[in-house]
Amino acid sequence: MYSLLIDHLSTAVVQVNRELGIEYLNPAAEMLLAVSRRRIYGQDIGAAFHENEESIASLYAAIESGHPFTKRDAEVERANGKKLFCDYTVTPITGTMNTTDSLLIEFYPRDRMKRISQEDELIANHQSSKELVRGLAHEIKNPLGGIRGAAQLISRAFTDEALKDYTQVIIEESDRLRDLVDRLLGPRQLPQKAPLNIHRVLERIKQLILVESDGQIELVRDYDPSIPDIIGDESQLIQAMLNVSRNAMQVLLEQEDNLHKEIKIVTRALRQFTIGANRHRLVCKVSIIDNGPGIPEHIMKTLFYPMVSGRADGTGLGLSISQSVIHQHNGIIECNSQPQRTEFNVLIPIETSSQDKETNP
Length: 361
What we know:
The chain contains nine helices and 14 strands. Helix 5 packs antiparallel against helix 6 (161-185) and helix 8 (234-254) runs antiparallel to helix 9. Strand 4 and strand 5 form a beta hairpin. The protein has a six-stranded antiparallel β-sheet, with helices on both faces. Strands 8, 10, 11, 12, 13 and 14 form a six-stranded mixed β-sheet that branches. A two-stranded antiparallel sheet has the order 7-9. It has three domains: 2-109, 2-Layer Sandwich (Beta-Lactamase), CATH 3.30.450.20; 114-185; 194-359, Heat Shock Protein 90 (2-Layer Sandwich). By secondary structure, the chain is of the alpha+beta class. It has helices spanning 2-7, 27-33, 37-40, 53-65, 111-157, 161-185, 198-213, 234-254, 318-328, and strands at residues 12-17, 22-25, 49-50, 69-78, 83-94, 100-109, 194-196, 218-222, 230-232, 262-275, 278-290, 332-338, 341-349, 357-359.
């Protein structure tokens, strides 16, 4: 009866002996750790998961002392190499000789809550930076108009063409600064939304990247043809995803080695997926993955801020504008990066009306 109850728990449970050999996993643990209990029964605990040497020492200490403990925000590596963010509780099981015979380890995954928290932080930070840029743009454009107007009036008063050239420089530089401010603000028009196939957008991007890279980069596509049409502005979505893809292309082209350079575009449909505070029944996920050197850790948290770039000649506007466009489509852009694999995930709800959107409990 007890075994039947544990097998039906939604909590992942692993039992190990005094030598940390695996004695039992319930189905929830098999699913969470992506292992089969029949294949790893009797093997060392590392066959199921591994954290670090300190965590192994803590397990042995629990066996000797008989005291339970809980580890918060642990980053566990599963047998397939993938990371798992979780809390886990270790409870010693006392035998007939009043000694610890085994340990019961209960896992509580936090991946979903961690992702939602990161998304909330990303949305809040992007909104704050957008408000800051709007205020700054207003303060810059007002005096710029006065400077430009004054230069035009002075130019009319001069008869010497050489002096007019100086006023023309003032006018042109004022226009250039105004254009930069407009780019900081992102798209000035509201999206003209209509049903569209996301793969048509991605095929256009593929053509542009292949031309711009002059065949130096291999572009791999992995599309899910079952994804229904989304509601969006085709031209704005092309620009948003092209900015992300072009960043990947430029980073790869800057590498001086002769390693294989590849950008992979993957599309998938996600069900019952949460973006920010809202849960959507169906979401389109576009992953743009490159095998470049990765994004420096010190700019990861500010990656979508205006004027932030990891490249010496980068403007830092592309990703900020892309995030603004995707926000206007009720979506978000996320990024995960490590050497040889940088992945940007563009998430856009597929619902056609706000009635399909549910508040996340």
